[in-house]
Amino acid sequence: MQIWKDYQEKNKARFLDEMLDLLRIPSVSAKSEHKADMLKCAEAVKKSLLAAGCDKAEVMPTEGHPVVYGEKIIDPSKPTVLVYGHYDVQPAEPLELWHNDPFDPVIKDGKVFARGSADDKGQFFMHVKALETQVKTNTLTTNIKFLIEGEEEVGSPNLGKFVAAHKSLLKADVILISDSSMLSMENPSLDTGVRGLSYIQVEVTGANRDLHSGTYGGAVANPITILAKMIASCHDENNHITIPGFYDDVAVATKEERELLNKAPYDEKEYKDELGVKELWGEKGYTTYERTGIRPTLELNGIWGGYTGEGAKTVLPSKAYAKISARLVPNQSSDKMTELLLNYFKSIAPPSVTVKAELHHGGEPYMTPIDSKGYKAAAKAVETTFGKAPIPVRGGGSIPICSILEKELGIKIVFMGFGLDNDNLHSPNEKYNIENYYKGIETIPYFHKYFAEN
Amino acid sequence: MQIWKDYQEKNKARFLDEMLDLLRIPSVSAKSEHKADMLKCAEAVKKSLLAAGCDKAEVMPTEGHPVVYGEKIIDPSKPTVLVYGHYDVQPAEPLELWHNDPFDPVIKDGKVFARGSADDKGQFFMHVKALETQVKTNTLTTNIKFLIEGEEEVGSPNLGKFVAAHKSLLKADVILISDSSMLSMENPSLDTGVRGLSYIQVEVTGANRDLHSGTYGGAVANPITILAKMIASCHDENNHITIPGFYDDVAVATKEERELLNKAPYDEKEYKDELGVKELWGEKGYTTYERTGIRPTLELNGIWGGYTGEGAKTVLPSKAYAKISARLVPNQSSDKMTELLLNYFKSIAPPSVTVKAELHHGGEPYMTPIDSKGYKAAAKAVETTFGKAPIPVRGGGSIPICSILEKELGIKIVFMGFGLDNDNLHSPNEKYNIENYYKGIETIPYFHKYFAEN
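^ Those are the sequences you sent over. The predicted structure of the assembly is below.
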């Protein structure tokens, strides 16, 4: 619609500036030192919703970081779209690998470099600007509600309760989420699901204190060595996970599903070159898209123990730690898998050490049908602005709240992400292409239009 | 000798205070930020040598941290004892596990808690105070030279060159070192050797940047997982090291040697209780004293990679690191073993990662005969002040410079350590019992007396 295009063209510089302002707030939910930043960010989101045309918006408390709710109700008889997003971001460490301050955005080669640019501030903010576009041009055809939370990156521990307590407030016909990526600008895609997550931490303790590795070395268990053995026991030579029961509940993808999945463009050389690796690694018998889409995984997210500073220290450490997470697929249950992982690491510990294993957080896998009214509206919107029908793909990441949102609100989710796989989510130098940002703002109003028409 | 006892009794408070002053200087050789502290400490040692009666003392440069040399020559025709020690200390990390500032000594229950209290400031300083005792009572019967270096904790990279360049300055009849421990005050012992060391660092790199563990998890090698597999491959189920060639040069201890070694008092329950472990860990077929004395070991001194902060971060890291060291026994060569370790870790890396392995430092194992004039003088000195002949034992630690000192100077080393295994060397809350400190000062003059008489 020309009226949208004109409005957006006229306001594009401001649209970008406002996104940058949001990125300047270090809203790291995992770190308690950022509590004040979280509140500041929630208030900024609320303000942006009101400025964009919401009738009301508020920062609503939870037991953790607050939720920002906003709504623009044009007519209760019209369909309502609930936009979910999150204003919290991953920790920015390791800071020394960033080319700029992660909370002082830098624009380079048409990309915004900052923590949260793609995940998810830059993406949920497209919806704010899409709302503004429709309100200011008097073209809004649906009601819109916003549910922007502050704990997605720590597993949304309080959102389930919040949603359950505010079912009528959040009542809608579809949930729309831009917190994922597409294959490329040339090959737009829509995620048909996200993987679940079980994230645990394992602590292995040997002696009650750090020891001299000469005096005691060879006679007392080294917790790093033991932890390494425990980790090594998790995958066999085919990179198949060996934890008993790990694959029990995995929904086996049909031949058709796998064929469809592998139709997405994929250039292995390009994929490897972009990552700088000589060979890929993964479960034997599956392609890359299958490995990241339909198969569960077990990844080491962090490990530490002993002396990690400059130079050499001949210490036999008392403790070693690992952060370990599994990505889950339908029909795996996060609670069950977490239990399985915790029990596994406790059960394989030799008697020379003690092992503590604890849940960090989890989330269920989620699948959305491609024949729903919402998915069809999204596909049509993408086709309108990209000139090409989107390919349905399985997302590798996790949005733990999906299954809870569907359960509590009784409606389906549509994933319409405009990020790219190389946006460095959760990594140093996270970026979001400005072109993608504007394309998202251009596409979203069509979703509302088609969803209302259908 | 009563005259020594009287002098020491009268000056004991000052003897302790002076040791504490030395402990207040954070002379951490491994960390470049402590360069000025290293110089300050060297100057303090020099001053203490002059104050104790040395004719001359100087801070002598090397390519790294300087060496402190001092001497008291009473008569060139008399025997000369070269005292070796080191004024540098291990890094104090992890700081949060200390009950006091590691460089602000605290006295509690008759123990001095501070980094370097036992290793080695408190121990080499006994020799300074023993010199003072003999000089001030006009009872010195040998010449004494001091070689106090500043790089022991980083593998003495520059001392070999220094010694080679100053052979005539360092000319002596025996080398005396207090940088080790004894079994207990009730069961005094003398080390008959120290283990060698090969200390390396391994860096495993997967992708060229940290990745989102959902987007890429399962399709790209995780360097932590790979590193864990590499570490796990080093020991079999009997805790025997599986690196090909690792044991090739190990001098097999005779039945008699093993019997002698196992005559030292050992209470497994007490040993375990003191360490807070339910079970010991070690190479099958060997006792604890054998595992720490006559057998080589491979220990993980540190490991790190990925996210190690508070909370959860779903990152698939680009890099993982480990600090790994082997303790060596006769006749293993440090250079050869280092080469073997570096090659091993490089050779087992799968093609999905790249591995960099580098030497931190090394040192040869060293054995001293128990029928030498020096060993006999030490044994007699210990028997005089402890009322009990010392048990000869093999030390588990390493003093990399030993084999070089013997080679360059053509004389034997005698180990006369007064520490205890539970002094927390290289660990938080390092301590040195004040009783042991005074006992050392009491015993050392007898060594000089007996060595001169013999």
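Chain B is about 35% helix and 20% strand. The first strand of chain B starts at residue 56 and ends at 60.

Shout if you want it in another format.
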